[in-house]
């Protein structure tokens, strides 16, 4: 069952399990060696002999998020202003070429009855980033997940990233960055709140 289907208890934190499940690193290493040799890259030299294993472990790391507890607290003081974590480091892998894309995410919300431990914004981002992804889906997944689990008045997610499938190959547009956003609730519907969120993220600065 996907964690997005779980309901948040007002007392007990939700345990979010890292992805994926089982991995066969031995099979991945053999496949990596075959892949390199098929591309004409020999693996017999001392420096390349361990490369298939390193490739397998590297992708296993990129595809595995850490488990965490989604900790929320009562909004006893009725805080109703924007909470924003800016410039959260992001790394993921483009599902079309399996090349990395890296950048930053800006994640904010307008609290409802509960507030979130701030580190959990970065944890939720990692949970969805550590898998083959496209940036548009990743942006929406983080926003939808927070909306479903936190029930805030509004959620905003902006991601700025450089895709190596665009900068290192193909068009080779060095330095090009892609910006995506998802705004929900008040941050989407109220122009003043929307403007405040986008201004505080510093997008386009």
Q: How many runs of DSSP E, i.e. beta strands? A: 9
Per the CATH scheme, the topology name of the largest domain is: GTP Cyclohydrolase I, domain 2
User: Which CATH C-level class of the largest domain is it?
Assistant: Alpha Beta
Based on secondary structure, the structural category is: alpha+beta
Low-confidence stretches: 1-11
Q: Profile the largest sheet.
A: 5 strands, mixed
End-to-end Cα distance = 40 Å
Total discrete domains: 2
CATH architecture of the largest domain: 2-Layer Sandwich
Beta-strand percent range: 25-35%
Provide the succession of SSEs.
Answer: EHHEEEEEHEHEHEHH
- Spatial order of the strands in the main sheet? 7-4-5-8-9
Pathway: Cofactor biosynthesis; 7,8-dihydroneopterin triphosphate biosynthesis; 7,8-dihydroneopterin triphosphate from GTP: step 1/1
EC number: 3.5.4.16
Catalytic activity: GTP + H2O = 7,8-dihydroneopterin 3'-triphosphate + formate + H(+)
Binding site for Zn(2+): 94, 97, 165
């Amino acid at each position: 069952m996907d964690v997005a289907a779980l309901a948040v208890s007002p007392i007990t934190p939700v345990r979010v399990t890292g992805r994926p499940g089982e991995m066969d690193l031995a099979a991945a290493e053999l496949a990596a060696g075959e892949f390199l040799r098929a591309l004409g890259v020999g693996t017999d030299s001392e420096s390349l002999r361990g490369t298939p294993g390193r490739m397998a472990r590297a992708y296993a790391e990129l595809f595995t998020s850490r488990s965490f507890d989604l900790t929320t607290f009562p909004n006893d003081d009725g805080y109703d202003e924007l909470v924003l974590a800016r410039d959260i480091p992001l790394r993921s892998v483009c599902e079309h070429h399996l090349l990395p894309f890296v950048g930053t995410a800006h994640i904010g919300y307008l609290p409802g009855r509960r507030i979130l431990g701030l580190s959990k914004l970065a944890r939720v981002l990692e949970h969805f980033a550590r898998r083959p992804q496209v940036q548009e889906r990743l942006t929406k997944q983080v926003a939808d997940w927070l909306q479903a689990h936190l029930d805030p008045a509004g959620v905003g997610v902006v991601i700025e990233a450089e895709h190596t499938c665009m900068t290192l190959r193909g068009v080779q547009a060095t330095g090009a960055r892609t910006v995506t956003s998802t705004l929900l609730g008040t941050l989407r519907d109220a122009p003043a709140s929307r403007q405040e969120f986008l201004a505080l993220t510093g997008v386009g600065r």
